[in-house]
Specification:
Length: 205
């Protein structure tokens, strides 16, 4: 798979999906705690719209906290841009070479895929991430990445029931591979999406 083309396709498909959302959906909550759809979509394009110098200034303003910086920027940008503009940021930058500080192109694809799922799973839109893209994202997972994203997978083994994929050791947790990817990225899922003794640990109240 050409990861650059996969990234571009993911951004264009998500931009089309976001453009089709009814107006009220933009204020609906997502799997990113405290962020509505509009904040998530604004955040997805931050790396395209902020220069390195701008990001450094924002990080300084946030007293070195990456979480505070991204939260502040997402809220500000979501308030300043209309939904169609937010979607267009993704479409117009489908081939932008941005990558996260760690992980390269595979992590850039993961950024788009996971945040897309933050929206589509929360809204129960039924979107399935293409398998080749999803496998690339699953390949980036490690104990270190799980800790970074706040996922406590201690004593739990993730087992996909739609792909030949598993991760970790311990009590089995079953679900669709893209749902388990969300678990590994620190998300709590809506009820009914996970199965197993440990499912309650990763299900939203």
């Amino acid at each position: 798979m050409d990861i650059t083309e996969a990234i571009a396709a993911e951004r264009r498909e998500l931009a089309d999906l976001f453009d089709a959302l009814p107006p009220g959906s933009w204020d609906a909550p997502t799997l990113c705690t405290g962020w509505r759809v509009r904040e998530v979509v604004a955040h997805m394009s931050m790396g395209f719209r902020y220069s390195f110098a701008q990001q450094a200034r924002e990080l300084l303003t946030a007293r070195g906290s990456l979480h505070r910086m991204t939260d502040r920027c997402a809220r500000r940008d979501a308030a300043a841009a209309a939904p169609r503009e937010l979607a267009a940021f993704l479409r117009d930058n489908a081939h932008h070479p941005w990558t996260p500080p760690v992980g390269g192109l595979a992590s850039a694809l993961g950024h788009d895929v996971i945040h897309g799922l933050d929206v589509t799973v929360a809204l129960d839109l039924g979107r399935r991430v293409p398998e080749d893209r999803l496998r690339t994202v699953l390949g980036t997972l490690s104990p270190r990445s799980a800790r970074f994203f706040g996922a406590d997978l201690t004593g739990v083994a993730l087992h996909a029931d739609d792909l030949d994929w598993s991760f970790g050791t311990g009590t089995p947790l079953y679900g669709a591979a893209q749902d388990l990817a969300l678990v590994a990225f620190g998300r709590r899922l809506p009820p009914g999406r996970l199965r197993g003794e440990a499912s309650g640990r990763f299900t939203a109240a």
